[in-house]
Amino acid sequence: MKFSLYLCGTILLICFITPHVTATLSGTDLPIHSSYITEDDSGKPNYTYSDAFAIDHNQMVWEKLIWEQANSSNFSLTLYLMNLTDGNTRIIATSPSQEFQYLFQTPFGFADGRVVWNAEYDTNLFMYDDRTEMVSPLTNDGTSIDLGIQRPNRDPFIFGDRVVWAKQKLYPSQDSDIVLYNLTDRTLRDIATDSGKKAMPTMDDSYVVWVDKRSEPGAGDIYLFDVTNNTERPLCTARGLQQYPQVSGNYVVWADLRDGPPAIYLYNLTTATEYRISDPSYYAAVPHLSGNYVVWEMYALYDDTKEKTRQVVVYNIATGESVLFEPGTRHPMLLGLSDNRILYANPDNQTLKDGYVHIFAIDTPAPVQSSPEISASAAPYQENSTARAYTFSEPAPAGSGPPVAIAVVLCSTGLVIAIRKRKERR
User: Which residues contact 280 (CB under 8 A, 6 or more apart)?
Assistant: First the structure.
């Protein structure tokens, strides 16, 4: 009887881990090297990290942070911008300096040669423009000593010639608004001014999305503003926290904690339908959405090791299929996504410690369809190519389906026993 229950639990674990679709991810890997990219966690005498990477077109931005082990208040921060075509790299901001005294808040807003950020304790926004090679302030009310005009600014995001961010209401309110600034005509526009805190705005040509706490102060919902039609609507008001929204074309993606462990949800603006696209047996981290793809990192729920195994999932909206991105025996660190290009670090070789990050360009992205087909029978889009490519054939979990549901009903007792036995062996 004990053996049967243990076997049943083992089968259930396999059902959870085994994906319901099979897909391959082929493309070209491009290593990017810079002497300003580094990672040293020895603390002898300093800790040094490069992080907050982002790519847009043929440019990449990141920061390098150095701080003293003996005194963490002693730090040095440098913000870099690289031209990926010729490797030319320039310093666009440093701290401490005459202009900045604090650490920069990340992630940075980055688009079309413009980088936008704010610093800790200095809640004004600043922008570097590659056209002028200059840094200029976008706001001046964030640190005003006059409480009648002081409005801290946070979470900037830039798309084209527009910057969107969260702007705190006047003191003593802790609520915030979402505002949109047009860099061309220099006009500031209110997007959302209802009560409650708002955060993490992002946008594309037509829409602004953000986390809104007006109805759920202890958690957060996802709201959308149609820039063309001047209309606002909630996209997700499920219980718990929804966060990290991104919008691209007809789709919005976010991380969702309604059921406890964070999951990834995709929303179709055309059909007003949401889909859970991450597997329920994994923790899903911050999603990235661009064009036809969603990528995120995930961690197994039942991984009891101190350093959990990280895996990167690539979801194709057109086919509804997921695949693990594994460029070697080590699990990569996801840094970003731009169109069909995945920015990542730490494969088997040429790691951050060696001064490298990598761009993996997925072969021939499929056209985005009006509604994703989340189906085990969907076939991946592929096209013949003569380019040298890497292919990853191990598929990633793509959500719970009938096999998992049946296994849960039949084998829940066996699962508990199997987990207990694993812990006892440790």
Answer: 16, 259, 261, 263, 399, 400, 404
